[in-house]
Amino acid sequence: MEVLADEALVKLCLEGDRAAFAEIVKRYQKQIFSLAYRLTNQVEDAQDLAQEAFLKIYQVLDKYDTSRPFFPWMYKVAANVCYTALRKKPQEEVPLEKVIEFAPTIPQAATQPEDYTETKEVQRFVQQALAELPEKYKVPLVLRYLEDMTYQQIAEVMDLPVTTIETRLFRGKSLLQKRLINLERGVKREMSRS
Amino acid sequence: MKCQEAKQLVFTYLDGCLDSQVESEFLTHLSHCTSCQNELESARKLNSLLAKSCTIVQPPADFVSQVMGRIEEFEKSKQTAQAKVIPMPTRAKPKTVLEKLSQNGFRFTKVASVAALVAALGAFVAFGKLPEITKMADLGGKRNESSLTEQEKQPATVLADNTGQKLTPEQTKPGPDSEQVDGEPVEQLPGSNEESLPEQTGADANNETKPVEIPSTSKGNPKAEEQAGHQEETIPDLPRLDGPFRQVTGITSVVAKSVSLTPISQDSNYVSLKPAWDERSRRVYYFSNQEASEGYYSLWVKDLKDSTVEVVARNVTKNVNADKPSTKSPDGKYMLYQEDGQVFVSRLDGSEARPLTPKLESASFAYAWRPDGTSVAISVKGTESQGLWLADAGGNSWSFITANGGGTSLSWSPDGRKIAFTDTDNMIYVGILVDENKTNLLMVVPEGDKQGDVTLAWSPDSQKLLFDWAKDGSNRGVYLATIPQ
């Protein structure tokens, strides 16, 4: 298939050309899969969620206003699917503070403590901690860092006031920070033992 | 600017989103506050860490074909749905991914104790009438809480589509009730107009209970409402009415709302059934063949507040059957009975008998008094009048509620405004009586249970319904449905 603009592909899709939709999936699979993966930190869950997102995009394709850019619209639909699915997950009744205090996976302190934030393990820890945040915090955080969205763009995707997004980013980051401090303490304890 | 305020602005400052005046105040504060400078430094670190951790990842190699496979399935099911012109819900619902994920329910560990006798007696009170107790040995005890995993402690939420109908995308926005997950309103992302997770594929990766969602429609969505309007049932042609039946009223709007289901006890290795509330609605009693000898059931209780599970008494019965609704009127003066294809009401001594239904030759009936004794819900099976009806207890009217009846399980909510019932396939529904002409119908489960009568037990506040149900024809489990208002 020749390289067509997204909008042209959408038009073909709406005329019944499924190959055109396959092209859209191919084009944006990385972004949508990454969104789902960063929100769940589980490959299989992410695959399912990303598939759901594309299926939804396919189902509501006729709602897309071709006079506007396709990607933001599509991403919004996908984020909505993810947000909804996460929101419907059972909510733990354990107080959030307790969850955050609990740091189950302390990385090996192979490097100097001051370098710990640079290790792959710490990154994995952050990814896990991010995925464990309540969805109202993690969705804006993932949109902010995965897609480098501005507060305004996140607000548009989530249909919330910018000030709410600002608050949620702050709260989400504070929770993450708290966990990282615990992590750092844990690493130091490990170091002092060895 | 004070420290607390400045600390709250640290991330916004780093993201370059402070307006110039606030930024100037922030920087002024920062210049003489070491604590906030440290705060800024650790915020920078966190930002850097987030930027490094939150990166693009490669999807699996066959991801595009997986998606296209899903789309093919969707198109096929759409065609099938279009081919069938059946006004009422389709029974078979494709499994959702989250359904698959939710297959693994609670697994109870065996921890013995002897402290449950009192609870057992309490449970018997709660059950009112227990099945034949054949053996009551081997008392069990409270489950060791520390052996519960977080997954076990945490109930899963199942959302069932109430109409069971194939929904168009614009219908799939959930109703207002579905937007409450944990008691507080949850914002909904706009844009896609909906938030359904239609049929999905995928594996149970974590062996844990996860939510199931089946597309739902919204009362708040004009298109969904329009659709609901199309789904209004019409009153079927009735056989000639021989009794003093002066009215035939009642129109059911199939108003789609999400019913939130929480598995109370669901395990592929065990059967759990016949749930009942304790007096304060805090605990749920049920029978299970877990920790029971071959052919027996043990009595269990689950605390809804802390999710602890106890075996109350082991091997208490061999037979657990759903109770039938009482035929005696709430005031104890009248009774219901059926004779020659008709349901009658009479005084307990048989006097003053009057028919509540017309003569329906080959019909079988199930019936239940409304708690205020003014009317009787009657489920009719086997004639063209098959469905759920509401008969005035005085025999003056006979109102059609819905053709989705015909099952043998019926249960009124204590406030008399809702009725839970089954159809001939043992699908579970709840009818909410809005007024004498309108009943909203909710489909509580996405598929029927072929294993016979189900138990339907309302909470005293009429908000929640306990029931047993075999999902996918597997072992019966006990579920809790939260009924939207």
Can I get a quick summary?
Chain A has 194 residues and is an all-alpha fold. Chain A is built from nine helices and no strands. Chain A is 71% helix and 0% strand.
Descriptive notes:
The complex is a heterodimer of chains A (194) and B (485). In chain A, α7 crosses α9. In chain A, 71% of the residues lie in helices and 0% in strands. Chain A has 194 residues and is mostly helical. Chain A folds into two domains: 1-89, Orthogonal Bundle (Rna Polymerase Sigma Factor, Chain: A), CATH 1.10.1740.10; 92-194, Arc Repressor Mutant, subunit A. Chain B folds into two domains: 3-53, no CATH class; 104-485, no CATH class. In chain B, α1 crosses α2 and α1 (3-14) packs parallel to α3. A six-stranded mixed sheet of chain B has the order 2-1-4-22-21-20. Chain B has a five-stranded mixed sheet with strand order 3-19-18-17-16, with no helix packed on it. Chain B has a four-stranded antiparallel sheet with strand order 5-6-7-8, with helices on one face. Chain B is elongated and about 95 Å long. Mean pLDDT of chain B is 68; it is low at 84-250. The chains are: A mainly alpha (194), B alpha+beta (485). At the A-B interface, α2, α3, α4, α6 and α7 of A face α1, α3 and α4 of B.
* Rounded average pLDDT of chain A: 79
Instruction: Give the name of the CATH architecture of the largest domain in chain A.
Output: Orthogonal Bundle
Mean pLDDT of chain B: 68
Number of domains of chain A: 2
SSE map:
The complex is a heterodimer of chains A (194) and B (485).
Chain A (H helix, E strand, L loop, with lengths): L5 H9 L3 H23 L2 H17 L10 H18 L8 H6 L18 H13 L2 H12 L4 H8 L3 H32 L1
Chain B lengths: L2 H12 L5 H12 L2 H20 L9 H21 L13 H5 L15 H11 L22 H4 L4 E3 L51 E2 L8 H9 L20 E3 L5 E7 L6 E6 L5 E6 L8 E7 L5 E9 L16 E6 L2 E6 L6 E2 L8 E6 L5 E7 L5 E6 L5 E5 L3 E7 L5 E6 L4 E8 L2 E6 L12 E3 L5 E7 L5 E7 L3
